[in-house]
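Section 5.1 Outputs to date
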Amino acid sequence: MNFPFYIARRYLFSKKSTHAINIISGISIIGVAVATMALVVTLSVFNGFHDLVASFFTQMDPQLKVTPVRGKTAAADDPVLTRIRQLPEVAVATEALEDQALAVYGERQMMVKVKGVEDNFDQLTHIREILEGDGAFELHAADMSYGIPGMGIAYQLGLGYTYQHPLKIYAPRREGQLNMANPMDGFVEDELYSPGVVFCMKQGKYDKNYILTSIAFTRHLFEQEGRLSSLELRLKPGSDFERVKNEMQQIAGDRFHVRDRYEQQDDTFRIMKVEKLIAYIFLTFILMIACFNIIGSLSMLIIDKRNDVVTLRNLGATDRQITRVFLLEGRMISVIGAFIGIVLGLLLCWIQQMYGIVRLGSDEGSFVVNAYPVSVHPWDVVIVFLTVLAVGFLSVWYPVRYFSKRLLV
């Protein structure tokens, strides 16, 4: 057995001549364990919110979205887009065209985003899962176009699940000059009818802004015949997602972006990553403070074991080996604290997942979820463990060497 490790293990678990040293050593382990537990729980809560938000976005966002690099639209029959949609791994491809417009219902009006899609949009996304009302997912019937508004738009315009009168949509003409004598000449006007449903994603970005309709309607409204703003795709089950995405990007070259669901919501997820990183940094500083207890424990242990050091020297131990004894003592405290903290952190996460002990509010249904969401990612646990070891090892290195030189002479 390694000599310094054997002595360090004996010192850690044996009874000291001064009882306070045992107490301080125990406090050191508890301090490291609590800081480690806080890291595991906090990062897991951030993961829970990340996964929760991702689950909402995926209800309407496609698996892959191809958009032009320059300009807002591209030709629907572009050879590059044709090659992409004809890849064998593509199960569903939908053309989409969206832009800003003015929605008017009775005396109320608001700016909205009108998104036109093809009839297979429900095969591309989980749109049917977020519909509310007595109707069904329909975009048109004969020459009549249906409009499915978000819940926020329905509330602000007073539409309800089924609006009785047509919803008027106005968009500025792309060509020509505005005639001030007849300003309405500068707009394309069309009407949407109710299919008896609204969608509710519980995300203001969608619920308060979007109206879904047929792509034929938006092409007429925005005077974009034969154009699209995005090609939205779903792959066949079992496809190698990253490989197919990279292949599509190679085909697209520098003319089109190919984005997955997370990249489509890049701003939101980037903010969440920054918040998680800041929380990790703050808790690491708290961990560093907790490691000062280890320094105090080791300095008192060095003083307590001065007589033992003389005996070890007489037995042939070098100063380097004796220093390693106390270094290993501090590192063992860090390892034990990290192990206990991770176990307690995982236990708390499991309890929260199963029973939802810590709730978001006192009223049921006030939030999207009633309790704080928790999701444990194995890689985060590994990072926490390595962080504790690194902070613990570095925090004891200089103090042990300093006290060893001063007190072990």
